[in-house]
Design a protein that fits this description.
The complex is a heterodimer of chains A (about 250) and B (about 325). In chain A, helix 2 packs antiparallel against helix 3, helix 7 packs across helix 10 and helix 9 packs across helix 10. With about 250 residues, chain A is an all-alpha fold. Chain B is elongated. About 5% of the residues of chain B have low confidence. In chain B, a hairpin with a 5-residue loop joins strand 4 and strand 5. By secondary structure, chain B is α+β, with helices and mostly antiparallel strands. The longest helix of chain B has 20 residues. A five-stranded antiparallel beta sheet of chain B has the order 1-2-3-5-4, covered by helices on one side. In chain B, helix 4 packs antiparallel against helix 9, helix 6 packs antiparallel against helix 8 and helix 8 runs antiparallel to helix 9. The chains are: A mainly alpha (about 250), B alpha+beta (about 325). Chains A and B meet through helix 6, helix 7, helix 10 and helix 11 of A and helix 1 of B.
Chain lengths: ~250, ~325
C-alpha cells in the first residue's frame, strides 16, 4: 500500500463532506488510512513547527517526532478517543502531542514501530523554510502560534483545492485574476483596471472573476473545516474563529 | 504552497466578507465585534461610501441578528446629528442580516481624549454626548452600554454615539436573553438576571441584572463614568465606590468631583434624575456658575466669582492702579 501523502493538492481528502474524524473511527482500513492522511495534511506543519519551538528539537528530531506522532496516533488510536463534548479537536491533538513528546523514549519506539504502520510523505524542508523566514517572536504564545499555523494550513489546503478545481475545469483566467490580486501581495496590489489591462479583460470581468473565486475559496474553506471538525457545533465555532462568520 | 502572514490575513479578511451582489461593494473591514462586522462599502446606486454592519451568523432567530435589527430600528427612529443615520436594511444571500449606515469618520472618544489634555475642551465634548443621550431618552430609548469606545468624535468636534444594539426601548417589552458570543466581550441585551454591559461603565443595578430598574439613570451612571474617565484617565472600578476623582488627579476642581460622585451614586435615586441635570451642572461649571451637586464654602465662592468676573475685575484693578499712579505722579 502506498504511503499516504499529506500534500494538500495531492487529493488524499475524502470526497464527501463528512468529518474525517468519523472516518477515522469507522474502522475499515482504507478509509481510516485516507482519513489519517487528511488529518495529517491539515496538521503536520503546525505539529512540526510546534515541536521545533515548544520542544526545542533540531530539525531531524522534529521530523522524526512528527512522523512518530502520527504513526503512534494511527497505531494506538489517539484520535478515535477524542470526545467532541470535551472541547475542540485541535486542542485535543496538541495535548496528545505534548504528552507524546514528553515521553521521549516511547516516542522513539513508537516512531520505529509506527514507521511500518504509517509513514507520511511530508516535505519538511518547506516547513523549516517557513519557520526560518518568518520565526515567531521569542515571547510568542505557542498555543496561539499553533492555532495560527493551523489556520494557515487550512487556507493553504483551500487554495490548493481551488487551484486544482480551476485547472480541472479549465478556469485558468479566473484563477489568474485571484492569484494576481489576492495571493501576490508582496508588492502593492494592482488596481482592477491595471489587472484588466495585464490580462486583457474588462474591469467588470476582473471583479466578477475575483468575486467568484473568493466565493469558491470560501466554499472550499468551509468544506475543509467541516471535514476536520467532529461536530456541527465545533464546525460553527471554528468557522467563527477562523473567518468571523458562519457558512 | 506557502502563504505569508500578509497573504493569510488578506485571505481571512476577504473570505470572511459578506457575499453581496448588486447595490453594495465591500471595500474593507472597519471593525469586528461580538454582534457582527462593520465594513466600508461602496453604495453603487448612490455612488457614496457607507458602512455596512453585518451579523456574524445567519438566521433571524439568533441573538446577534435580533440585536442588529434592533439597533437598526432604534437608529431609524432617532434623527439627531449625534446619531448615525441608517440608510438600508436587508438580508444577504447567505442569510445574514445587514444594515447600511452613514460612514463615520473620526476617532474614538478614548483616543480623542488622549490627544486632548484640556479639561474644558473635554467637557465641551462631554456636553455634546449628554445632548445626544438626552435626545434618545426623550424618545424613550436607553442606551445601556455607554463608554468611550462607543463614542466617536469627528474632525470638527462633532460627536456620534454608536452601538445601540443593547438599547432598551421604553414602549417595548423586555428583550430576550442573549446567547453567548465566542471570543467577544460581554456587552449584549439584558434580560432579568442576565448581567450584560461593560464593567466600569455599568450601573450597579445593571450589573445585578435588575432589568426592571434600568432607566435613564442607568445611562446617567455610565455618563458619570465617562466623566470620571475624562477627568482622571481612569475607569471607575466594576464594583464598589470609585476613588474620589481629586485623589486620582488633584487638579480636578471640587465641583467637578461632586458632579462625578453624584452621577456615579450607587443608588439610582441619589443620581441626577435625568441627563439634562448632569449636563446643566457641567455647563454651569464651564461658565463659572454654581453647580447643584456641590455646596461651596465662602472661599470657593470668592474664588469662583473672581474667576467668573476676572475680566471686569482686572479692568477695574488696572483703572485704579492708573488713577493712583496719576495722583502720585502729578507734580
Amino acid at each position: 500500500m502506498p504511503a499516504p501523502s499529506a500534500e494538500p493538492a495531492a487529493g488524499p481528502f475524502p470526497r464527501t463532506r463528512h468529518s474525517v474524524l468519523e472516518a477515522v473511527r469507522a474502522g475499515d482500513e482504507p478509509g481510516r488510512r485516507e482519513a489519517f492522511g487528511a488529518l495529517a495534511a491539515a496538521y503536520w506543519k503546525p505539529v512540526y513547527k510546534y515541536v521545533r519551538l515548544r520542544w526545542r528539537r533540531a530539525p531531524p528530531d522534529a521530523e522524526d517526532l512528527t512522523q512518530g506522532f502520527f504513526a503512534a496516533a494511527f497505531e494506538k488510536g489517539f484520535f478515535e478517543r477524542f470526545d467532541p463534548s470535551r472541547g475542540r479537536f485541535r486542542t485535543y491533538l496538541r495535548t496528545c502531542l505534548d504528552g507524546f513528546a514528553s515521553k521521549e523514549r516511547a516516542a522513539a519506539r513508537a516512531q520505529k514501530r509506527g514507521g511500518a504502520a504509517l509513514h507520511l510523505s511530508l516535505d519538511f524542508g518547506v516547513a523549516e523554510g517557513e519557520l526560518r523566514s518568518a520565526p515567531p517572536a521569542p515571547d510568542a504564545d505557542l498555543d496561539l502560534y499553533f492555532h495560527r499555523e493551523w489556520v494557515r494550513a487550512l487556507f493553504e489546503q483551500a487554495v490548493a483545492r481551488l487551484r486544482a478545481r480551476c485547472v480541472e475545469t479549465g478556469r485558468t483566467t479566473p484563477f489568474a485574476v485571484f492569484e494576481r490580486y489576492d495571493l501576490d501581495r508582496e508588492s502593492d496590489a494592482p488596481t482592477y483596471a491595471e489587472l484588466g489591462r495585464e490580462l486583457g479583460l474588462p474591469v467588470t470581468q476582473v471583479t466578477n472573476h475575483l468575486s467568484a473565486m473568493r466565493r469558491e475559496l470560501r466554499r472550499h474553506l468551509f468544506e475543509t473545516l467541516r471535514e476536520l471538525c467532529a461536530s456541527e457545533d465545533e464546525f460553527r465555532q471554528e468557522a467563527r474563529l477562523v473567518l468571523g462568520r458562519e457558512p | 504552497m506557502t502563504l505569508s502572514d500578509q497573504v493569510l490575513d488578506h485571505l481571512r479578511a476577504v473570505a470572511g466578507e459578506p457575499e453581496i451582489d448588486g447595490r453594495y461593494e465591500i471595500l474593507d473591514e472597519i471593525a469586528r465585534g461580538g454582534m457582527g462586522t462593520v465594513y466600508r462599502a461602496l453604495d453603487r446606486e448612490l455612488g457614496r461610501e457607507v458602512a455596512l454592519k453585518v451579523s456574524s451568523r445567519p438566521g433571524a432567530a439568533t441573538d446577534a441578528e435580533g440585536r442588529l435589527l434592533r439597533e437598526a430600528r432604534v437608529l431609524a427612529r432617532l434623527e439627531h446629528p449625534g446619531l448615525v443615520p441608517v440608510h438600508d436594511v436587508g438580508t444577504l444571500p447567505d442569510g445574514r442580516l445587514f444594515y447600511a449606515m452613514k460612514r463615520v469618520r473620526g476617532s474614538r472618544l478614548d483616543l480623542h481624549f488622549a490627544a486632548e489634555p484640556s479639561i474644558p475642551a473635554r467637557l465641551r465634548t462631554f456636553e455634546r454626548i449628554c445632548e445626544t443621550v438626552a435626545f434618545a431618552h426623550a424618545h424613550g430609548v436607553i442606551h445601556r452600554d455607554l463608554k468611550p469606545e462607543n463614542v466617536m468624535v469627528g474632525p470638527f468636534g462633532e460627536v456620534l454615539v454608536l452601538d445601540w444594539g443593547v438599547a432598551r426601548v421604553r414602549d417595548e417589552g423586555a428583550p430576550p436573553p442573549p446567547a453567548p458570543q465566542d471570543g467577544a466581550p460581554a456587552p449584549g441585551r439584558t434580560a432579568h438576571g442576565t448581567v450584560l454591559g461593560t464593567p466600569g461603565y455599568m450601573a450597579p443595578e445593571q450589573a445585578r441584572g435588575e432589568v426592571d430598574r434600568t432607566d435613564e439613570r442607568t445611562d446617567v451612571y455610565a455618563l458619570g463614568a465617562i466623566l470620571y474617565y475624562l477627568l482622571t484617565d481612569a475607569v471607575p472600578p466594576s464594583s464598589g465606590p470609585a476613588e474620589p476623582a481629586r485623589r486620582r488627579n488633584p487638579s480636578v476642581p471640587r465641583p467637578l468631583e461632586s458632579i462625578c460622585a453624584k452621577a456615579l451614586a450607587d443608588d439610582p435615586d441619589a443620581r441626577y434624575p435625568a441627563v439634562q441635570g448632569l449636563s446643566a451642572d457641567v455647563s454651569a461649571f464651564l461658565s463659572g456658575r454654581p453647580v447643584t451637586a456641590h455646596r461651596e464654602g465662602p472661599l470657593e465662592w470668592t474664588a469662583r466669582q473672581a474667576l467668573r468676573y476676572r475680566t471686569p475685575l482686572v479692568l477695574i484693578a488696572a483703572y485704579l492702579v492708573m488713577r493712583v499712579a496719576l495722583i502720585l505722579w502729578r507734580p
